[in-house]
Amino acid sequence: MTHLTPSMQRVVDTLAAKGHPHRPVMLSDAARTAQQAADALGVALGQIAKSILFRRKNHPSGVDAAVLVVTSGDLRVDEKKVQALVCADGGKLGRANAEFVKEMTGFSIGGVSPVAHASPPVTLIDRELLRFEEVWAAAGHPHGVFRLSPQELVELTGAPVADVTVTADNAPEEGDQ
Question: With a threshold of 0.70, does the pTM exceed it?
Answer without folding.
Answer: yes
